[in-house]
Amino acid sequence: MLAGAALILTLVIVLVSLSFRRGDSADTKADGDGVRQVRVWIVGLGLVFPMTVLAALLAYGLFIGERLLPRAADDVARVGAEGRLSAWTFTYEDAPGRRTEGMLHIPAGRPVDVAITTVDVIHSFWVPRLAGKLDAIPGRVNVLRIEADAPGRYEGVSAEFSGVGYDGFTFTVTAHDPSEWDAFLRGNPE
Amino acid sequence: MNALERHRKLTAIWASEPGFRGWFSTVNHNDLGRMFLVTSFFFFIIGGLLAMLIRVQLATPHSAFAGPEIYNQIFTMHGTIMMFLFAIPTFEGLAIYLLPKILGTRDLAFPRLTAYGFWCYAFGGTMMLTAMVFGIAPDGGWFMYPPLTGAIHSPGINTDFWLIGITFVEISAIAAAVEITVSILKFRAPGMSLDKMPIFAWYALITALMILTGFPPLILGSILLEVERAFGFPFFQVELGGDSLLWQHLFWLFGHPEVYIIFLPAAGVISTVLPVMCRTTLLGYGWIVASAVALAFLSFGLWVHHMFTTGIPHMGLAFFSAASTLVAVPTGVQIFAWIGTMWKGRPELRLPMLHLLGFFFTFVIGGLTGVMVAVVPFDWQAHDTAFITAHLHYVLFGGFVFPIFAGVYYWLPHVTGRKRFFHLGEFAFALVFLGFHVTFLAMHWVGLLGQRRRISTYAPEDGWTAINLISSVGSFVLAIGIGMILIDVVLHALTATRGRRNPWGAGTLEWAMMTPAPAYNFASLPHVTGREPLTLLPDLATALARGEGYLGEPRHGWRETLTVDIASGKPDMHVLYPANTRLPILMSAVTGVFFVSLLLKFYWTIPVAVVGVAYLAWRWAWVLGRTDDPQVRPVGHGVELPDAAATDRPPGWWGSVFLLTANATFFGSLLFGFAFLWTIAPGWPPPRWFAASPVWLGAGIIGAVLSPVSMRLAIRTNRRGGGPVPGVVLSLAGTAALGLTCAAMMLGTPPPAEHAYNATLFVLGSYGLFHATLAMLMTVFLAARVLRGFTSAVRRAEFAIVGLWIDYACITGVLILLAGHLPTLLS
Question: Staple partner for B734: which of A137, B7, B477, B703, CB 3.0–4.6 Å?
């Protein structure tokens, strides 16, 4: 996407710069009715060119977006993330009653659905290395699919402005290998 | 009479009072346009200083410069000031100053309304500055999402300043938009048909129509949130049937068109200035108008792209993602039409052209990053990071500030009548260009590294230190550049030498007058035969000064002009303007009392202010008009026109049409909110329903039918020379019945603080009651005018205007009654 954008920007700069050439554009100046100019500039570059590029980009974006949606699968782990000023509390479907604050534990190598809720204002759950962000809206449950390929720690932030205390409103996701994950669910986190 | 005598006589008629006293009583667009622009650039400086404070705070990690409480106020006020107190008023000021000149007429449609709008802007802006001085400025971010901005999480007065102050300022946007629309459609030089209209007027027309349909959702949202904060009506509280997402929909339903409301006037400046800088004409005039219209329509269909991360289903996102990318097409048409124009002509690197090149480079980058964030998965990462901040600055600075600077330098000789002496501008441009790109390219980068927007500080471990420091250094270079531009402009206005008329060799009518522009613009009005009248007739200015056009003879001390048929540009009415008056400043001061009373919760002064506004509005309309039948008046060149009061479609009627368009959008947004809460909000159905009554419903509908029917009867009787009073009284009775049923609905609703359903019904009822009362007041006014002899079979214009407001009150009243009664009656 960046390369494409750079290419289009270069095209515009080149076209603008070339307009400052002198003398050798007698043919275009003589073209009094401007029909050819309208065809080249407006229909060609103004309509056809962006429509082609945008249609391709849109299709690509929707394809990727569909792939990122939570799909039904056998091994999905389900957790809950509840935002409040200024901390996240996490719950686990496989370990009812278990609550952790500021630290979300997930199994590595398995898809995880995070059910995102809030008890006060709007927050946003964002672990940049695992997925895009999704908002926590009062009265709603939004489900985000994340997946950590390898065990380890992943930093997360709350990404919707929530007043004083927003700066330090962060959390951590720890992805475990299967044996550690079992141990965590049984009640000994490390 | 020679040209000089004519100039003296016209100046005596049109000039404002001498000295600073004139500022308070002027209704002339020349004065008010300049006052708007000076005030808006004052706010630009304030907003810029706040931006400097933000960059100081973020320059180093763990900065101790400002704590989050202050920092949150700073960035909220930076966004708010730049959007509402700089960008929109700059468009208004530019349009108010330029339009009558470009359109070849003497003033805008409603001179007193121009002044009222200016003072509402000035007073509302002062309110916001006061909040800042006392450290109680809004701090919830410029889009003010509840529940963060609700009474529980923001108990202070800060948020109220935003909701009330900005609504006060929005009065000026709506007033200017009505004014601009009617002026462009009706107040043009004879012969200027729509296809001969200068391109700037097209852009201004489209922008004004967008303001009329884009701002009402925001005004509604602000009112609902303020009512929730003050009286506990739970529109945005999910436990009581409200929904915080309703605010986001209403806000972005305004907020996205807002971006184009800011960009389109700038595009109008580009389309005007660029061809002159290239010594040619604009390529693809029709295409550009069509693409600006397309942009306006599309921009109302993509507000949801600000809400990609709120959990809306992916198919819904797909639609809005497609619409968001599609909006790049009409933008592309315009960009390439401009580049084609440059190829067609011989571009010269004069100062306005430099800023236009700055525009091309910056805006294209902003557009490309805009396409990126329109792609949903990318936005899920980039949303609410510094990448978005950088993107929107590329769009707004590239798409607004650079073109406006080009326009400032282009029209500066017109405003001052001087030519540039100090060549500070070129160096200043280089600093601005360099400073801007260093600041915001860096910001893209740090956003992609994960820096969230609106954080007040960060840690050294985050690895953002160097980039933020570079960004801050760039921003100071940018600030110095802008400071130099302002100094350059001030020096120019104070010290430069006299310049010649039309220094750029432009073809539009604003250059066919002496500079600085006289208060009356044109000593006589031109007859327009092409898009560039000055290219066709280079001596037009002298001919007009000699009085060879229309209305060349000053008479009776009248401020007179004429209006034209919308499409063809054939003259159709003779219009007399009101003269200087302090009524506008007085009325906006009393309007200010209303808003300040709300803010400080001095509820006992509110009725006083309401009665005061009503009284002044009565005076406003009363002082116009005459008690003898006007003759058809000659306007020169053998053309005779009827007085506006002796027509069915006077300027006031057109103004009412567009004001009611905005009002209908407001009402539509309210109904949308009702339907949204009903179907989407989690806390429904409500515990109790409104006790609907078929009797009340029937009475209201009968009243709503009786009122417009009897008003039509009164209009017909009046035309035939009969007495209209019985019809007027009957109409009054009908409106009163409608108002009573709306009041009954408000009283019959369960307590509004209990559930959003009750609250919405209460607001709907008060909307109906307000408009019925307004229609009754206007009907009583009309009756008084009839009795005092201000109307006759010929002087019928006021009937048409009052009839329009009655129709509106009755149509919306019926819809309100149905929305309240039908659901319970049917179930």
Answer: B703
